[in-house]
Amino acid sequence: MKRHHILKRTFLSWLLVLTLTLACVERIEFDIPPARAQIVVEGTITNEPGPYTVRVSEGISLDASSPESTPIEGLKIDLYDTEGAFEALTETAPGTYQTGGFIQGEVGKSYYIRIETPDGKIYESTPDTIEPVGEVSNITYEYEARTVEGLLEDLPADVFNVYADGNAGPKDQNFFRLRFTGTYEVLTFPELNETRPPTYTPYKTPYPCSGYVVVGYNEDGSIAAGGRLLQVDECTCCVCWAEQYEPAPQLADNQLLLNNEYRNIKVGEVPINNATFYKKYLVELEQMSMSRTSFEYYKLIKLQKENASSLFQSTFGEIIGNIKGVNTEEPIIGLFWATAIAKKHIFIDKSEVPYPLTPIEVKPFRCYDSYPNASTIKPEAWQ
After folding, report:
1. Cα(36)–Cα(247) distance, rounded to whole angstroms?
2. Is 199 within the bounds of a domain?
3. Are the C-beta atoms of residues 69 and 35 closer than 8 Å to each other?
4. CA–CA distance from 21 to each of 8, 29, 60, 235, 340 (Å)?
5. Which residues fall within 8 angstroms of residue 346, CB to CB, at 6 or more apart?
6. Which range marks the domain in which residue 196 is found?
7. How many beta carbons lie within 10 A of that of residue 52, not counting itself?
8. Among 147, 106, 128, which residue's Cα sits nearest to residue 296?
9. Considering the domain boundaries, does residue 210 fall inside one?
10. Is the pLDDT of residue 190 over 70?
11. What is the largest CA-CA distance in the chain?
12. Could you tell me whether strands 332-339 and 39-46 are parallel, antiparallel, or unpaired per DSSP bridges?
């Protein structure tokens, strides 16, 4: 009993100390002016046929409730080359501006954009030159068994590591980017969709794009729970091609070269599961020439992406780009850059996976709603 009283007294003493400590904390309110929204610009011109696209948005503030940036509409954007030709861009979607085909990018020429806002502010990019590009000579892949920590046990997370060989280009000093894009075919079953009203038996509601209708109705005209599915047309939302993108830009310069060639550079990873290898996986690699300005810009982006999760990351420098105000000091960041592109692709067949995979998951939805970056448009390279 005595011990109980001592513990009780100790607890009350600590509670009193904590209460007094908290009572002494005075909240200080700082009058901080709202941050000015920065304009963010991203655009490219290549040696391939257009259209060439420029996207303009507002930067996301730290206290923003949504991670989505706000597109900036109603801008006047012109594309110029340094020989005097120019073309006005058309706004094809909110904040997205495209050329109409008058200007075609050429190796050796320099290009820049001029942006004018509705209130008369003018911004201009520094001219960027389309440098000659080398080529990707070979793409290889190698299986790697991996696991990730699950709730109760380790889970498989196997991959194919993808590597590339190639030539950097004809110049003594070459900067370039190796852009990795993966594509895989998926299948869903939108005819199996059901509506589940509270306390009622679910009833079949196939998506119209599935090509199926329900045969069988109740006396009041409602769909019968046991109605039969009947196919009356082809499905236009069952098969999609989903894309996977690199997590950060893959860059290279002379430090990675031997006799102006690169060997066995890792350019990406292909996750192995029953969706990515429902059939096969397309690896597309673009070698993109860069000026030093665009190389340094993407180098900072790469460093920030790779170290974003570290509490102890060092400061790599402010990402600004090559666009500045002509008649304004309003902040703007971003890059309009010029590049020549060389492409190569390979397929990794399902048979390359060293074990059998389970069938693809039965998802009763439209395919483009079921997988990230999925579309019903078949890629040009798909065979």
Report:
1. 29
2. yes
3. no
4. 20, 19, 38, 68, 65
5. 139, 141, 282, 283
6. 191-231
7. 25
8. 128
9. yes
10. yes
11. 96
12. parallel
Is residue 340 a part of any domain in this protein?
no
For residue 271, which of 372, 193, 192, 178 has the smallest C-alpha distance? 372
Q: Which of 95-104, 117-126, 307-316, 353-362 has the lowest mean pLDDT?
A: 307-316
The torsion angles phi and psi of 191, rounded to 5 degrees, stand at -70, -15
Q: Are 360 and 274 in contact (CB under 8 A)?
A: yes
Which residue, chain included where needed, has tokens 């060092």? Answer: 314
Q: How far apart are CA 304 and CA 313, in angstroms?
A: 9
Average pLDDT of the chain?
86
Closest-CA residue to 272 (of 184, 332, 361, 362): 184
Residue type, 150: G
Task: Determine whether 176 is exposed, middle or buried from the number of CB atoms within 10 Å of its CB (0-12, 13-18, 19+).
Answer: buried
In the chain, the number of structural domains is 1
- Rounded Cα gap, residues 69 and 233, in angstroms: 39
Q: Which residue's entry shows tokens 């970056």? A: 373
DSSP state string for 204-236? E---GGGTEEEEEE-TTSPEEEEEEEEE-S--S
Convert the pLDDT of each residue in 312-337 to its tens digit.
Answer: 455 455 667 899 999 998 889 999 99
Contact 214/193 with Cβ under 8 angstroms? Answer: no
Token code pair at residue 63: 């206290």
Nearest to 175 by CA among 333, 299, 43: 299
Pairing relationship of beta strands 159-167 and 261-271 according to DSSP bridges? antiparallel
Is residue 1 predicted with pLDDT exceeding 80?
no
Has residue 219 been placed in a domain?
Answer: yes
Residue 208 pLDDT level (bands cut at 50, 70, 90):
very high
